[in-house]
Amino acid sequence: MKKNRFYLSIGLGLAAAFLLGVSGPVGAAENGKALWGPNCLSCHNYDPSAKLIMGDFQSYSRQANLLTVKIGPKPQVVKVSDQTKLENAASYRDLTGDNALKIAFEEKPDGFHARTVTVKPKLKVPDNQLMSTKDMEKLVALGPEAGKFVLLDSRPGYRFQEERIPGAKNMPLPNFDKLTNLLPQDKAQMVIFYCQGPT
Amino acid sequence: MAARRAEKLGYTNIKVYHDGIPAWSETGNVLYTDGAFVEQMMGFLVLLDLRGMEAAQKAHVQGAVALEMKNLEKEKGQFPIDKKAPIILYTDQSDWKELQAAVKMISSWGYSRIRVLEGGFDGWLAKNRPTQKGDVRTTIFYIPRPHPGEISGDEFMNIVKNRPADKLILDVRNAEEAAEGVLEGAVTIPLDSLQGRLNELPKDKEIIIHCRTGLRAEMGYHILRNAGGYKARFLNDKITIKGKDLFCCYK
Fold this sequence. Notes:
The complex is a heterodimer of chains A (199) and B (251).
Chain A: H1 12-20, H2 38-41, E1 52-61, E2 66-71, E3 74-79, E4 85-87, E5 100-108, E6 111-119, H3 133-147, E7 149-153, H4 157-162, E8 169-170, E9 190-194
Parallel strand pairs in A: 4-6, 7-8, 7-9
Antiparallel strand pairs in A: 1-2, 1-5, 2-3, 5-6
Chain B: H1 2-8, E1 13-17, H2 20-26, E2 32-33, H3 35-40, E3 46-49, H4 53-58, E4 60-61, E5 65-66, E6 87-90, H5 96-108, E7 114-117, H6 120-126, E8 131-132, E9 150-151, H7 153-162, E10 167-171, H8 175-179, E11 187-188, H9 191-194, E12 206-210, H10 215-227, E13 231-235, E14 239-242, E15 245-248
Parallel strand pairs in B: 2-7, 3-5, 3-6, 6-7, 9-13, 10-11, 10-12, 12-13
Antiparallel strand pairs in B: 4-8, 14-15
């Protein structure tokens, strides 16, 4: 069963730099904002001068050279060709639903043609903040109270409902500022964030 | 990123479990799921009641299959072929530590979507979610949730045989594939030229799209949906056409 998923990734600073790296103005697509997924918009400001699709990989057909990108719940089909530049991945076949894509495209009568497909790169976390699965197992076994930590899941609510690490609370990144009550009173207490993975 | 925002608020002991959910579940650790999710997916997941036969017969989550925890290993053979099938385990309270061994075992068989119903059967009852009494199933039965726009294999075969006037079969495979055989009455438009040839398709008939595996047919469905005005569904299954022979529908 294929799943329709989109994920938040962590790391705003790098992501912003990543967006700014895109080519200059290309005239706004008529409903350009509809081509940016809501999760992408939680970190990136919509830029009407950039002709971009921002969403999550759904499927790729080698026979037809087409990609399906999920923009929020809506699938959009985009053509790729030998001229399309693929960045941060060796092949379209390596992509999974965990990959967020940014696609610079041209609109032609026979559909959207991708000029560049950029896979969102793995974001950096300082070494001293990284938790291993082994460390997590120990802490989760203790539980938040005995382990003196707060465990926060940054993914959207529907993903949290589907699956979560025991003891976690949901703090979707787009609502971070509204949910700061989930953070501990004591600012020295351990706060652990996680999401779908490092993509 | 959440960690940077918390830093700005003055938190000094911030950690990031960067590998996240995939790494956590890969090693057979327990993930909880919410009753709301289970209720929404009902009928399309494997729901295992591990409280023992007696308790399950009194009442169980609607659609659950009762298995004895101690017999779990012997039941391996009846787990679905699809390793991505969502598998939900529960006991009375579903304390994850009590279910850790079961999750690890099923995970070692290759299943990647095992979850434990948070709150267990008691939590399910407390929320007034659907239950059944009396006879409880003891054999696993799994069908994946159909994608939006998916047509069943049976209905597809009926359309192929009877060719009703209000339906049109659209074959989106490429020319080489179509050269080996095409369904009678089907229109062939390779998927990569579909967007440019939409005007060849009627809006007053339901368009039934197929390819060879379902992948391109689904893309074709999205192209028609996004274009607007077309009625369409697609076959999400394998189909092989050799001359007049048709091999179809494995789901």
